[in-house]
């Protein structure tokens, strides 16, 4: 009989065979057939000797007699299955037993197949072929699992690098709102920025116009993640508080002073800039306010941003504004202005839609009505404590501190003591 090729009984996955039998004659008969078929064969006359050979040079296939003095074939099989190895080893028990209970006992011990003694060469070859198919599938699966693990490890490395970069990006984005509170004398301004992920598309800010006037804004860029965050970073430069020359809301006069442009004009200019110079699919909503600290007059323009909440000193809440189109959607869009006059103890909340569109445990949105209720509850809470309490109540409403959307807010509060009567 000719030697086996990889397409024959061993299938290329069975090369080393261990024959275990206390009968030297039986070992010689089996070894002769296996060697003719091209296998590398080792012999052991006991289960103990076989275990030593398995530790030194793990076989692909074991053929072991069941009944042996000392460690029986069944006991050897159990020990064999406990051994650590890179690939599965196929185990055939040689036995004269044919009782179903005995066969079940052998399978429970870890045997894969059985051969009845005396062994028929054709049947032996067929059983080896069956074992080769199983081992081939096991090794293919092992290789696929190895490739998957390698790929997952590489992806984890990339994820860790990306996560590290996103953490740094979050720090940079949060630094755009480096000043969370400022006392302007007649009024105080508090800022809050809470991204749904590492980074987001919300931004709130303030900038000085003169000794008695300040600019305030709330921005919400469409989408989430890195591209939205990059957009907010660029917009922060257009409304810079540290470099007035770059602030599109300010105009430098001949005497070197800076004066405010009308909020509606600023938003229209931003829309033209986005539509003509920036290649982006993003658009954003914006509310821009010009605040006169001396008179309490606030001039605002709204570009798709939620209606700001004006809470009077008596606790009553009204939502003001005229809507308007988001910036970056329609070329040549026009924007309107509106005014409110704030008195002693009044406050104005400029917020993103992440607040009013927050879904509760029932699925209903918070909406303006829910926000007004929260503001009334927090009537006596001021400044950063008010914004922090707002976040807490929002997470209580949603049943989760991780919001589905970015959440941002700016709170302008006039001090009661400066407005007698």
From TrEMBL:
Q: Does the keyword Hydrolase apply?
A: yes
User: At what positions is 4-aspartylphosphate found?
Assistant: 65
Give GO terms: molecular function aspect only. Answer: phosphatase activity
- Boundaries of each Response regulatory domain copy? 16-132
Alphabetic keyword roster: Hydrolase, Phosphoprotein
The record's listing under SUPFAM superfamilies reads: CheY-like (SSF52172), PP2C-like (SSF81606)
Reply yes or no: does the keyword Transit peptide apply.
no
Q: Which GO terms describe its biological process?
A: phosphorelay signal transduction system
Query: A Pfam family for this UniProt protein?
Result: SpoIIE
Gene3D superfamilies per UniProt = 3.40.50.2300, PPM-type phosphatase domain (3.60.40.10)
Give the stretches traversing the membrane.
Answer: none
**Protein name per Swiss-Prot or TrEMBL:** Transcriptional regulatory protein WalR
The taxonomic lineage of its organism, from the top, reads: Bacteria, Pseudomonadati, Pseudomonadota, Alphaproteobacteria, Rhodobacterales
Its gene? Answer: walR
